[in-house]
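Lab notebook, bench 4. The sequencing result for the construct came back, and we need a structural model before the next group meeting so we can plan mutations. Quick request posted to the team channel:

Model the 3D structure of this chain.
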Amino acid sequence: MQDQVKTVGNINPLFWVPTAYFTMALGFMMLTNVTSTMFKNLGMSNGEAAGYSSMFILAYTIKPLYAPFVEMYRTKKFFVLCAQLTIALGFVGVGLAMSLPNYMVVLMPMLWVLSFVGATQDIASDGVYVTSLDSRSQSLFCGIQSLSWNVGPIVAAGGMVWLSGYLYTEVFHQSKGSFGPEWIAAWRIIFFLVAGVTLLMALWHWKVMPDGERASNTPTSVKATVDILKDSFVTFFQKRDVWKMIAFAFLFRLSIGFLEKIGPFFMLDPLAKGGLGLSNELLGLVYGTYGLAAVLLGSLLGGWFVARGGLKSTLFILCCAVNIPNITFLIMSWYLPQDLVLISAGVIIEKFFFGFGSVGYMIYLMQELAPGKYTTTHYAFGTGLMGLCGMLTGMVSGFLQEWMGYINYFVFVMVATIPSFLACWFAPFHQTDAAAQTESGNPEQTKHAAAIH
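Done. Here's the predicted structure in token form:
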């Protein structure tokens, strides 16, 4: 591949593309996903744990609004290194803060700030990728980029959650099935470990990552940046049937938003509370490893399915794939299986079909919502609506589950699929319904094509 790709400073992109996207995903998952498990372990109610962790999604949702300002100053590599160094130091600070008497007063603002730093890392890393590689190189590396990003969630939601449980029981000799402050010692080590990995990545990228070239249309002043943002909003709402497309972008994953935080809580809660009573080790193995691998496989097959049949003729089938398999959680909440094989099968089925169907969502944003004067920005608006849906549903999901109980809540999740079906059925198609092609110049598209929950 060395002879086929554009290299910068005689450094092959294989040295920095995989590590850049792995580091992005590791930070994202630790902040927006793994924190919910940590809060649950520390003794928070489902409502508090889901609500607090969902708040950290906001920074990633609104990052298109401040991305142009990152482009204006210094180099993209500079922002990548600053962000990774700040995240590393921040996670050390999180670990230290957890030893304080009222640690949540300090912990929440720190994690909130780190979420914005993590979103800035995403912006800058994507910028390095787009400007340092030519279109052919971007196409060659899009698969490596997507795979590398998906390793991050497996390490965070799988490996780190598993390790937290191992430390809790085997190193600190605490009893399984309990929630409370006795978990602090285990989670402090996890944050110190992730901080160390992030710091190593920053040092590595300091050596091997290119600076990233400045795009020819980059604004040179704050006023010019604001003007471009205003124009991108105006032209977005001038699109034909834009409100139907907005409804699709927001509602397609509505039921998944309600399931995202509660699924792991259901696995962790004891039988007496209607859960399955799994340990953190088993949660990391089943939900964070088997499940995420199923998402990745489903995404690959979903892309092949759309490429063969075209988006317009397959979109409703993909919507069914995302929503109908959620019933596996309703079935598990009813029968409360204790066989790990059955539990794993339920999670794998739901995750596989989620990955399979979500490809259609991302391709719709690329082919129907994004085209126009500001293709990349409008695509980011679409993914921002997806993030907004996940944040809002996540913030209320825990409180709803506590009110309803697990069985009734998972019935509610199935009812919440109805808006998704309606939005999909009425989704407009104004562009040519070509076979699905991932736009090689936009790393957000390949990264989110295997989106996880």
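The CA atoms of residues 83 and 121 lie 5 Å apart.
Will bring this to the meeting.
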